[in-house]
Amino acid sequence: MSITTKMFKMHLRRANTVLLAAVLAMTLGACSSQSSKAKPAVDPNNSLTANQLYSKAQKATQSGDYKTAISLYETLEARFPLGPYAQQAQLEAAYAYYKYDEPDSALDAIDRFIRMNPMSSKVDYALYLRGLVNFNRGSSLVDKVFPRSIADLDIVRQKESFHDFSTLINRFPESRYTGDAKQRVQYLRNTLASSEVNVAKYYMTRGAWLAAFNRAEYAIKHYQGSPAVIDALEIKITAARKMGKPDLAADNLKVLEANFPERAAKFR
Q1: 242 has pLDDT over 60
Q2: What confidence score (pLDDT) does residue 18 get?
Q3: What is the separation, in whole angstroms, between the first and last Cα of the chain?
Q4: Tens digits of per-residue pLDDT, 216-226?
Q5: Considering only CA atoms, which of 118, 185, 109, 191 is closest in space to residue 149?
Q6: What is the spatial distance between Cα 268 and Cα 259, in angstroms, rounded to a whole number?
Q7: How confident is the model over 123-150, as pLDDT tens digits?
Q8: Helix, strand or coil, per DSSP, at residue 131
Q9: Which of 67, 84, 126, 174 is most solvent-facing, going by the fewest CB within 10 Å?
Q10: Cα–Cα distance between 130 and 160 in angstroms, integer?
């Protein structure tokens, strides 16, 4: 055999050895990489029954762990959508969202519950909870440390809260939640009326008499029984006179005289 042939065979054996080593290294690396990857975690809640999930979620709620409670209630509803716990899970999740300071999610859950269960015996609670979410919406840490009038907060949400509580009172007068709702409605009536009157007074300073008149009229129409109604009547009288409508002013003065004669004296 020639030297050239021997050298060729020797180089070929070396190449095969290197190739085999590379393949072996790649195989071992792949096995090592796969073995190093952690196996997907198995959610222990997947093996729980509906009753067990509900009990666990309730305990989380009671301990103030609302994030865990939300996850458990949602798991319960997803796994057992037609079970006896599904409706309650929706409401409990809404409450947990409310306490977890996620009002949008809470309102979505409440609206979905009412839409899916219009004949439920717990619709009164759903309306009450909706009112609470809107009533407290906008409150921040600053508000808790330095309390301020509700009139300074989100008026749109407060109007929604007024509507929620009013609906509860009208539809479920015997509900266990109606008493508290009535107190909140009275509070909202007074503060919302004051807010409307304050806006009307601002329009007065700008000489926008029609806008002031309309805002005051809105306060009287929607918030009867509020002390701010007296101010609203006075604004309507003044604004009507400024617009050159003495008959309209006289009509409102008669109402003021009949109900608050001492306040009407200054307009005679």
Answers
A1: yes
A2: 44
A3: 136
A4: 999 999 999 99
A5: 191
A6: 15
A7: 999 999 999 999 998 654 444 444 444 4
A8: helix
A9: 174
A10: 9
Q: Which two tokens stand for residue 149?
A: 């009038």
Looking up tokens 């269960």 gives 117
d(CA 60, CA 25) in angstroms, rounded, equals: 50
Q: Distance between CA atoms of 250 and 266, rounded to whole angstroms?
A: 13
Token pair of 97 as six digits: 């969202």
**8 Å CB contact between 132 and 162:** no
Structure tokens at 98: 């409310």
In the structure encoding, which two tokens stand for residue 229, read together? 């109604």
Question: What whole-number distance in Å separates Cα of residue 261 and Cα of residue 249?
Answer: 15
Amino acid at 192: L
For helices 228-242 and 246-259, what crossing angle results, to 10°? 160
Place of tokens 């407290």: 136
Q: Which two tokens stand for residue 83?
A: 């079970």
Angle at 163 between CA 96 and CA 117, to 5 degrees: 55
What is the rounded CA–CA span in Å between residue 123 and residue 111? 10
Find tokens 């065979």 and name the residue.
9
Q: Which residues contact 250 (CB under 8 A, 6 or more apart)?
A: none
Distance (Å, rounded) from C-alpha 132 to C-alpha 197? 25
Residues with Cβ within 8 Å of 86's Cβ and at least 6 positions away in sequence, in order, are 76, 77, 80
pLDDT of 84 > 70? The answer is: yes
pLDDT in tens, 63-82: 999 999 999 999 999 999 98
Rounded CA-CA distance 158/143 in Å is 15
Taking alpha carbons only, the member of 229, 235, 217, 216 closest to residue 259 is: 229
Model pTM?
A: 0.73
Tokens of 200: 């009307």
